[in-house]
Amino acid sequence: MGRSEAAHAPGATGRDARFRHFAEDLLVARLPVTVYAAFPGADGRWLYVSDQVEELLGFTAQQFLDDRDLWFRRVHPEDRERVVQAEDRTLVAGFHNAAEYRMVRADGRVVWVLDDTVLEHVEGEGLVQHGLLSDITRRKRTEMLLAAHTDLLGEVADGEPLPEILSHLAQNLESTSGAALCHVEIDASEQRHAFVSRADVEDGSPVRGWKGEELRVPVRDGRREVGRLVLRYPPGRTRGPADDELAASGARLAATVLERAAQQDRVATSLALLEATLESTVDGILVVAASGRIAGANRKFAEMWHIDPELLASGDDATVMSSVLRQLVYPDAFVERVQELYSDPTASTFDELHFRDGRVFERYSQPQRLNGESVGRVWSFRDVTANRRLEREVREQTAVLERLSRQHESILNSAGDGIYGLDQEGRVTFINDAGTRLLGLPREAVLGRPVDEVIRAEDITDDVTGEVSAESTGEPAGGSTGEGIDTATRLVTGRHVRADGRVFDSERIVAPIVQDGVVVGSVVIFRDISERRAVDTMKDEFISVVSHELRTPLTSIRGALGLLAGGAAGELPPRAHRMVEVASDSSDRLIRLINDILDVERMAAGKLRLRREQVAVMQLVATAVDETSPLAHDAGVRLEVGAVFGSVWADRDRVVQTLTNLLGNAVKFSPEGSVVRLTVVAGEWQVRFDIDDEGPGIPVDQLEEIFNRFQQVDASDTRSKGGTGLGLAICRGIVEQHGGDIWATSAGPGTGATFSFTLPTGPGGISRRGGSRRTTVASTGSVATVLGQHRPGTAP
Q: If we measure between CA atoms, which residue out of 69, 78, 70 comes closest to residue 53?
């Protein structure tokens, strides 16, 4: 059909023609379709159109005949090009064509029409197109709803997001209904969410102050309204019964989508819970279908059987089975048992599988049924290797204990260390041969006698008679059996006296014997450590000699390197100059190490000389902070010092050495931007110095060990932070030779640490009290003047 222009009906003469036209007019008037005739093609014009066109499109037949472009304008904009191109391709006499497209009625409603045409060659006129226009809107909307139903439910099944699905529904309804806008409003969790047909509408209430007609249809879940479908029509567009039916169908489809989505969520939740349950079990689970094919497995199964999960999911069951059989000690028995189970779908099994690598699995198989029919089998595998190993170890331990019981006497007597036992009254119950040799007494002279009568010791840390006390009788065990009764194993060093009066250095390990929560005695292992101590003395002397012999050549090497760096041998190339600097720094570190070793050795030998004098605490602190400030500045750490007063009886240089060492350690182990605090508390008889840092902290079990030689919390600290590992040992030696104490406190790693030490206020206990007001000192400045600002009687 082509564009219209002013048209007329061709004339006819004669009685037969009049009757024929009358019959045709009568027939056309009764048909429920619009009949038309027109010249085809883009330049065609209307020749005839029946009055039914007014019911179909809202325009009279005369309007179509008078208005050349009316038909073309009323074709839906999205369909115009397609319709014109289809007409141009069918300009052949006798060609029959049926096209479906949309037209916009006079009232703005969109209708679908079926344009059924045939071309006829008319003498003197050329090709004439005869056509029938039928209203197929109801059918097309039904088809759309069915297609949308299928597509939307498919999207739900595919897991598409619900907002996207409802937006697709709104787009379909808008396109089919001819509405200007469609959106689906869903009420959820006391909030309203709108899913709009157009992506360029941002909020949930598109087109505020809408002037056209609006149609709202509730979306129901049973009797409960869960939302609404809203169609907004252009101004002047009226809706008809078909629009109401379409909106109602769309609302039902939205309700169906919500219901299916909810079902999908419930199924997904159930599957997720099931999967989580299977993945959280300690057993490997394998599900096999009735056909014998692998239907699924959890990750534990793949892990236990060393099978790639991708291989399990690939469906290559033959490769999976081959991998399984290669691991088993008895693969033929495994296959035979599986075949027996599949020959009897109702059978269950519980047995063990033994692997070539020593593992042992428990295997349990249970058939799965659905409506009385076997649908597969579930296999469960549990690794019981540790249990079997433990059972075997228990049997072996029992046998060992039985043998030990029989060989108790020979074992004790073959030990090189002395071993004796005590009962609750502190009497010796047994002693081995080595013990009698160390004591110089026969076994008969020791057994049954109180331990303090036959085993004499001196200069030890624990009282020998305290190894087992009468107070321990009937007390519960576990760290302490009661008031003052310790059940922990103790290490005691001292000296033992033999029966002939000779003395030897000894080491004892005292362990309580606990039965049913009660200490019933103790076992003591003691040994002669005289040779070990002699070796330690030789080692210390060797270190001292080596340190002295190394320091002299190192001093010469350091001097020579200094001369080279200063240009004494001429200007060095940059690379050589850098190498000399590295060598110079290394020799400095080695010299410091030797000096530290010598200091430690002097302290251990009691040869460290102290030049004590009455010195102001403020001077000591100021000097130490001044020496540490460059290090703090480079590390980005702030030093914070409390106001200090009073004086101590001490060696000025050695106390500054101690303070500098502790402050330097605190700075080195503190993160950038943190604070190191030095606080001084003066008492009547002593002054306490506290250095707090915000560093990595110290494990509680190493708070004492860090003061030993070459002892650090982390061995890597020596490489990353520098140092010899002797600094704290030297600090302890200096403080203790002054008659003071030194210790460290920390709540553990990550909490920082506090190092404290005390010094006497004078040779006769002179009191030098001071303040404790705190001030912050920049890491780059001198603190001497700052400290001086807080003397008693001056304003802070």
A: 70
Q: What's the CA angle centered on 578, arms 573 and 580, to 5 degrees?
A: 95
Element (H, E) at 753: strand 753-760
311 Cβ partners below 8 Å, 6+ apart? Answer: 319, 320, 323
The string of pLDDT tens digits covering residues 178-223 is 777 888 888 876 556 667 766 445 444 444 556 678 888 898 888 8
- The H or E element that residue 31 is part of is none
Nearest to 648 by CA among 601, 599, 681: 681
Task: Quote the pLDDT of residue 2.
Answer: 38
Are 368 and 376 spatial neighbours (Cβ–Cβ below 8 Å)?
yes
Segment (H or E) for 360: strand 360-370
Q: Can you state the angle between helices 331-343 and 317-327, rounded to 10 degrees?
A: 130
3-state secondary structure 770-795: CCCCEEEECCCCCCHHHHHCCCCCCC
SS3 letters for 482-542? ECCEECCCEEEEEEEECCCCCEEEEEEEEEEEEECCEEEEEEEEEEECHHHHHHHHHHHHH
**Model pLDDT for residues 452-488, shown as the tens digit of each residue:** 888 877 644 443 434 443 333 333 333 444 333 456 7
Amino acid at 516: D
Tokens of 111: 């209708």
Instruction: Tell me the backbone φ, ψ of residue 322, rounded to 5 degrees.
Output: -60, -40
> What is the average per-residue pLDDT within 539-550?
69
Strand stretches in 280-359, DSSP E: 284-289, 294-297, 349-354
pLDDT band at 247 (very low <50, low <70, confident <90, very high): confident
Q: Is the pLDDT of residue 772 over 50?
A: no
- Helices within 503-649 (DSSP H only): 530-565, 574-605, 617-635
- Taking the C-alpha atoms of residue 131 and residue 794, their distance in angstroms, rounded to an integer, is 116
Spatial distance between the Cα atoms of 693 and 753, rounded to a whole number of angstroms: 6
Q: Are 120 and 112 in contact (CB under 8 A)?
A: no
For range 80-107, the mean pLDDT: 81
Q: What is the mean pLDDT of residues 546-566?
A: 73
pLDDT at 770 over 60: no
* C-alpha–C-alpha distance, residues 357 and 374, integer Å: 35
Determine the pLDDT at residue 332. 92
